[in-house]
Amino acid sequence: MAKWRYKLKEDYERDLPEWWQDRIVMNHESMWFKLNQAPPKLLIKAGYSWDGCSGPFIHDGACRVAGPGMPVVAHKPGDCFRTTTRGSMTHDIGYQFLELFEVLGVSRRMWDDLFKSDVKEDGFGAYALYHWGVRKLGGIWHLGRKILKRVGLIK
Fold it and tell me: Residue 134 and residue 119: Cα distance in Å, rounded?
C-alpha cells in the first residue's frame, strides 16, 4: 500500500440510490469495479486502494469498519477515520474513473451527493463542510484535469 491509506480486503457491494437507475445508461465492469443499472448497484473489487479524506481531522486509529454494510479494509497504523472510510472509498473510485462514469451516465454531482449521504449516515459530524469542499475543490480538480488533457500534458 505504497501511497494509499486504505486497501479493500474483500469485494464491497452497495446499493445506489434508486433514481440512479434512470441515469445509468448501461452496466459496466472493469478491473476495479462493476456498475449495475437495474437495480442500481456498485461493486468495488478487493485490492482497490484509496487515500481517504483530506482535511483537518486526525484519524482516530480505531478503524472498526467491518460489519453489516461496511467495507473491510487494511490500513496503515493510525490512519483510519471510521466515519469517512466508506464515503471516501466510493467518492474516490467515482473521481478516479469520472470520465468513464460520465459516459455511463453518472455525474460528478452524483458522486459528491453520495459521499455526503454516506458520511452523514456513518456519523461524521462535519459532513456538510466536507460536501461543500468536494463540490468546490473537486470541480477545480476535474476542470484542471480536462484542461491538461486538452493541451496534451496528461493522457
Answer: 12
Separation between Cα atoms, residue 24 and residue 27, nearest integer Å: 8
C-alpha cell belonging to residue 83: 466515519
Q: Give the residue carrying C-alpha cell 497504523.
A: 77
Residue 112: all three cell numbers together: 459528491
Q: How far apart are CA 116 and CA 134, in angstroms?
A: 9
What whole-number distance in Å separates Cα of residue 17 and Cα of residue 41? Answer: 8
* Residue-level length of the chain: 155
Lowest-confidence region among 8-22, 97-111, 118-132: 118-132
Which of 50, 54, 93 minimizes the C-alpha distance to 73? 50
Judge whether 107 and 94 are in contact, CB under 8 Å: no
For the cut 60, the answer to whether the pLDDT of residue 7 exceeds it is: yes
The number of helix segments (H) and strand segments (E) in the chain equals 4, 7
For residue 29, give the C-alpha cell. 465492469
* Boundaries of every domain in the chain: 6-150
Q: Which residue carries 483510519 as its cell?
A: 80
What whole-number distance in Å separates Cα of residue 103 and Cα of residue 86?
24
